[in-house]
Specification:
cytoplasm, binds 6-O-phosphono-beta-D-glucopyranose, 14 helices, globular
């Protein structure tokens, strides 16, 4: 069943282009407009939404962080992201105009289920983004948007994460269409950008051997840091989580802008730091800001492992290693940038002789609070 791969995780990383393509499939009508048949919430209710709260745990919560950047940008609705267990127990402000989006691969995570129940008791509408058909959370939601990643066997999530991000983009574009934030041709263009992503993800996977070789050379690392800005920030958090889960290495993700407010104290000679670099073609100064961050940490001895877009020559002088990814709009870049980090964690864990499919102490689906 591993399809010739050494582990389910390796297979599932290779399944990612398909998972994203399948999650995008059948979402438009003959005119090219987005239609979400399984979203059975009255359009007038969705038009009246004045706040979105994404609730989830673990990797699924990081897909929610990406969703926040995309949905706020496209729809101009405030989006909060909260760990489901924190949401449930802090007396959150939720009412009939709040849309709660619950993201879960299994559809069974108890913390997320309790958050869904609490939100509905307060009158909120709940849309769940779920991979597993017939699970509990979609049954208890007002509507469901299924990801089509197929069964995910490895405990640490990979393809479900990319499918969750994709579903969140689809939801964001659908809300933008419904609420008139974007013209139909703008939506169509963004959908075209999204449909180009599976092929680019495939390219990143094909370049994986360089990442694996780097990981094998870092078998002795005991601490790895990850930096990102904007949507690169949740990618950094997910890269750190993968390394903790799979290789049992102390890893932390930071917003790069936070460096000088504390984390830079962690940098000493040889400290490996991954940096997710946004597209240099973006309009604002995001890119130059992160290039300065790379310079700052390198000047203090960091070994910089940089994920950058093809053609981004500005990072070359400051990178010890560069993992190139194809060009893509900044908001969509997480679908590419996280892949080398998944491969890195898997390869490092494998080099340490660990079971990447069944890490110690973890369960695929946590059905207790
Ligand atoms: C954890 C899993 O226990 O639950 C993670 O080990 C996962 O991989 C998290 O991200 C949330 O699970 P789900 O099924 O709600 O997405």
């Amino acid at each position: 069943e591993k399809g010739g791969f050494d582990s389910f995780m390796d297979k599932e990383i290779h399944d990612q282009p398909q998972a994203v393509a399948d999650t995008l499939l059948g979402r438009t009508d003959a005119t090219g407009a987005l239609v979400l048949d399984d979203l059975r919430i009255d359009e007038s209710v969705l038009r009246a939404v004045n706040k979105i709260i994404v609730v989830a745990c673990g990797t699924a919560a990081y897909s929610g962080h990406v969703a926040k950047y995309a949905i706020e940008h496209w729809c101009r609705i405030p989006v909060e992201v909260e760990l489901a267990h924190e949401f449930r127990y802090r007396d959150p402000i939720v009412d009939e105009r709040t849309l709660v989006v619950a993201v879960t691969q299994s559809g069974e995570t108890m913390d997320t289920l309790m958050a869904v129940r609490h939100a509905r008791e307060q009158g909120a509408k709940v849309i769940s983004i779920v991979n597993t058909h017939g699970s509990t959370i979609p049954r208890e939601s007002d509507a469901v948007l299924y990801t089509h990643a197929g069964p995910e066997i490895a405990v640490a999530s990979t393809k479900a994460f990319l499918a969750q991000i994709t579903a969140a983009y689809v939801l964001g574009l659908y809300l933008a269409q419904l609420r008139g934030n974007k013209f139909p041709d703008e939506i169509a263009r963004l959908l075209d950008d999204l449909r180009a992503m599976p092929r680019k993800i495939q390219t990143v996977i094909e370049r994986g051997e360089y990442v694996r070789a780097t990981a094998r050379s870092m078998e002795k690392s005991d601490k790895v840091l990850f930096l990102g800005r904007h949507v690169g920030f949740p990618v950094a958090l997910e890269g750190a989580l993968k390394l903790k889960e799979l290789a049992y290495i102390h890893a932390e993700g930071f917003a790069a802008g936070e460096l000088k407010h504390g984390p830079i104290a962690l940098i000493d000679e040889g400290q490996p730091v991954f940096v997710v670099v946004p597209s240099p073609r973006g309009r604002d100064s995001l890119h130059s800001k992160i290039v300065s961050n790379i310079q700052e940490i390198r000047a203090r001895g960091a070994r910089t492992l940089v994920i950058a877009e093809d053609g981004d020559d500005a990072v070359r002088p400051y990178a010890d290693e560069i993992f190139w990814i194809p060009q893509a709009p900044t908001l969509l870049q997480p679908l590419l940038a996280v892949v080398p980090l998944q491969i890195f964690a898997m390869a490092l864990a494998t080099a340490k002789g660990l079971d990447v499919d069944q890490p110690r102490n973890l369960a695929k689906s946590v059905t207790v609070e």
